[in-house]
Automatic annotation (TrEMBL):
Pfam families: adh_short. This is Short-chain dehydrogenase/reductase SDR. GO terms for molecular function: oxidoreductase activity. Keywords: Oxidoreductase.
């Protein structure tokens, strides 16, 4: 897929991965639909991407709110005729022992990591169907394949997202829409309970992390070359062996 002039929608555009993904697709000439919770963060990102001179549309959305999700889908459908690449990169990581998880944290984990993907994908299907070839990419986790203690809320949501994407990839196998579950290992961002500073220190000590700029380029290159599989794993070295140490 030649990305120049294509329409790319990034859910979670101002997060650690989303920001880098937005930058890479903009550099390749794609027009962007950027979605995040706060408009001021979107405005900052828009200014950063201004030198690329691509068209940028900004939308705010609270992914825990069904009304906000519905409003987002309606605005995008009103403003745009089609979507070529839709990336759901928003997420929340609640890493707590089971007795410590509040209902609000459980619900937010499911709402942001799974339910918002279901709702937005479903509502934007008509725009995806108008593309010659469309990609729907969701950022999953290795914790959606291998469960660990102390991460029941996170693992449950990621197992559910993986199931959703695997089912959709089969359901739409003979159509123009390719659903892709991006199964990620640890990424060097502020996501989760550890700060970015803490992660950088652990990285220097040998902990394996994916660099977000490398990951973004990897995703865009696979879209360009049409080499994304229904499930595309991207892990840093020793990911599963380190994860099984269960150090939070």
């Amino acid at each position: 897929m030649n990305l120049s002039g294509k329409t790319v929608c990034v859910i979670g555009a101002t997060g650690g991965i989303g920001r880098e993904v937005s930058a890479v697709f903009a550099k390749k000439g794609a027009n962007l639909l950027l979605v995040a919770r706060k408009m001021d963060s979107l405005t900052v990102l828009e200014k950063e991407l201004a030198p690329t001179k691509v068209n940028i549309s900004k939308y705010t959305c609270d992914l825990t709110d069904p009304n906000s999700n519905e409003s987002l889908a309606g605005k995008i459908a009103k403003d745009h005729k089609n979507i070529d690449v839709l990336l759901h990169l928003a997420g929340i990581g609640v890493y707590k022992n089971f007795p410590e998880i509040s209902y609000e944290e459980w619900k937010a984990s499911m709402d942001i990591n799974v339910t918002s993907a279901f709702y937005i994908f479903q509502k934007l299907l008509p725009l995806l169907e108008k593309s010659e070839k469309a990609y729907v990419i969701a950022s999953g986790s290795g914790m959606g394949k291998v469960a660990l203690s102390g991460r029941s809320a996170y693992c449950t949501s990621k197992f559910a997202l993986r199931g959703l994407m695997q089912s959709l990839s089969k359901e739409y196998k003979k159509t123009n829409i390719h659903f892709v579950h991006l199964t990620l290992g640890s990424v060097l961002t502020s996501f989760g309970p550890l700060s970015l500073t803490h992660k950088k220190r652990k990285h220097k000590e040998g902990k394996g992390y994916l660099e977000p700029d490398w990951l973004a380029d990897h995703i865009a290159t696979k879209v360009e070359h049409d080499t994304l599989e229904d499930e595309t794993p991207v892990y840093p070295r020793h990911y599963f062996s380190e994860s099984k140490k269960d150090i939070r």
